[in-house]
Design brief:
The complex is a heterodimer of chains A (about 110) and B (about 120).
Chain A lengths: L3 E4 L2 E4 L5 E7 L7 E6 L6 E5 L3 E2 L7 E6 L2 E6 L9 E6 L11 E5 L1
Chain B lengths: L2 E4 L3 E3 L5 E8 L7 E7 L5 E7 L6 E3 L7 E6 L4 E6 L8 E8 L6 E4 L3 E5 L2
Parallel strand pairs in B: 2-11
Antiparallel strand pairs in B: 1-3, 3-8, 4-5, 4-9, 5-6, 7-8, 9-10, 9-11
Classes of the chains: A mainly beta (about 110), B mainly beta (about 120).
Chain lengths: ~110, ~120
């Protein structure tokens, strides 16, 4: 199985900050990576797929990059609505494991 | 608009089974796959498997094989996930999530169904 890790596990930031979250895969997954945002008590929401393709309706302050084993999610200017937990998911091979999540909270 | 409506919370005793439903609207259920993902309280997301409502084809993570049954009833645009031989470790919110194919990503998610396993 491909194992996914994320760093940091928690990130404290202020509105307007540039935020970067890293996701690593235990073996190469090409560009087959998705990012989701989850707020407490809510279902996850797809943000980015194929490592860098923005899902329709997602604000352009979100961007993704990377390939192979290392990926990043960047929020260019953090907004109040962005405080949430972010998960990466490898979409390359079974089982489609998620990373453990990165919680972005208010500094 | 695309909507996935799931059945309500369930409580089961260890060893029992639970069946969760997911009714799709706003799109043709046979045009997409349905994935199932669960989340234990305070924990991360765990991918369980998928079903193709059109063909009935399905696949699941090895750790659930033999315990999970995914089915569909296209006449009512609904898919089902049944998990058997429940233990306390199966206490979680179970989500259905629409996918373009057998591989993620999944673009629309149901609100989740809390399954509590307790004696």
């Amino acid at each position: 199985d491909i194992q996914m890790t994320q760093s940091p596990s928690t990130l404290s930031a202020s509105v307007g900050d540039r935020v970067t979250i890293t996701c690593r895969a235990s073996q190469s997954i090409g560009s087959w990576l998705a990012w989701y945002q989850q707020k407490p008590g809510r279902a996850p929401k797809l943000l980015i797929y194929k490592a860098s393709t923005l899902e329709s309706g997602v604000p352009s302050r979100f961007s993704g990059s990377g390939s192979g084993t290392e990926f990043t999610l960047t929020i260019s200017s953090l907004q109040p609505d962005d405080f949430a937990t972010y998960y990466c998911q490898q979409c390359n091979s079974y089982p489609f494991n998620f990373g453990p999540g990165t919680k972005v909270d208010i500094k | 608009q695309v909507q996935l409506v799931q059945s309500g919370a369930e409580v089961r005793k260890p060893g029992a089974s639970v069946k969760v439903s997911c009714k799709a609207s706003g799109y043709t259920v046979t045009d997409y796959y349905m994935h199932w993902v669960r989340q234990a309280p305070g924990q991360g997301l765990e991918w369980m498997g998928w079903i193709n409502p059109n063909s009935g084809g399905k696949n699941s993570a090895q750790r659930f094989q033999g315990r999970v049954t995914m089915t569909g009833d296209t006449s009512i645009s609904t898919v089902f996930m049944e998990l058997s031989r429940l233990t306390s470790a199966d206490t979680a919110v179970y989500y259905c999530a629409r996918g373009n194919g057998s591989y993620p990503p999944t673009d629309y998610w149901g609100p989740g169904t809390l399954v509590t396993v307790s004696s």
